[in-house]
Write a structure and sequence with these properties.
- With 16 residues, the chain is mainly α.
- 88% of the residues lie in helices and 0% in strands.
- The longest helix is centred in the middle third of the chain and has 14 residues.
């Protein structure tokens, strides 16, 4: 789902 993908990308940006 778009929400899941968006959350995953957001999490990756936070970790980076």
């Amino acid at each position: 789902m778009k929400i899941t993908v968006g959350f995953a990308v957001f999490a990756v940006l936070l970790v980076s």
